[in-house]
Amino acid sequence: MPKKKAVTLRTIADELGLTIHTVSKALRGLPGMSESTRKAVADRARKLGYLTKEQEAGMSAERIPWTNARPRRFAMLIIGDTNFHRLQLGGVQYRLNELGHSLYPLVIPPTVSEGAPFEAWLAEHDLFFSDGLFLTAALPEWMETALLKLPMPKVLINYPPDMAEVDSVIWDVEYAMQRSVEELYRRGHRRILYVIDIEPLRGFHLRWKAFTAAAARLGLESLAEPAIHVVSPASDRLFWLSQLKERLSTGAFTAVISAVPGMAAWVYEAAGDLELRVPEQISLVAMENEENPSLPGLSRPLLLVREAGERAAELMLRRIANPLLPYEQVRLRGGFHAGASMRERF
Known about the structure:
alpha/beta, Rossmann fold, 3 domains, LacI/GalR-like_sensor
């Protein structure tokens, strides 16, 4: 007789106080419950190591080894220690641990320079003895270029450079930006202010490209001119804020898109200094990596940063098990949280 599973649908249902039918529907992605219930079921199933037959089949179909695999040790290179990087790290680490592998993060100090000093630093930290390497977003271009040349499996958690032969996964900021413009347009906004740099990072450039594409598609071609927006480097915060206040004070805009994480609070500050109320007088959509506890009602596209880390782990194991497969470039698209920082304007 087949061995009975140690963890069953009933196990999960009993622990959460739900019916077996509800748990089954949640794990199969069927409608009929709140997202909080669905998430609770999925989280508990993962914690208990429960996989549905469909999940097991999916892992096999993607050629991802998940049983009886040799434990492997991977490295992840990170610039800085921000919540943005912790989300990526957490996703990779969680998925690898589930599948019996380990990850050690290497935070690159700002003193490391290009060339021999960088190579010496890599050797000092035994990078060349790892089974694979995860490259996070925001690495300097010279560093990313050098790392992509290393003779080991790699997964880039970023948009890949042109002609790069590497597996990559990223939360789709182009889709998120276009969705943000569409959501504001649907609520009657035609004069939308874009705020944040449009260079030098690939992600920054792609955000601006997506903004102008959405504007053109919706017949708002006048918004494609950078000079009317606030696209100066935010590193000079005082100058950036002065520009933002100047644009808002004209009354020419009914909504703002804060295009990179961490800037929404500064938009609120500028609006407050001008006695502009959000959303009564100016609507705001912010591309934040996660919910901001100090701004709980923020309207935002959902950027799947942690989920990108989980997918990166799967791509790495798939690459190691199947080195001749074509490279994949995966983009994860999230939904949109309408929030309370935008309103209709007709």
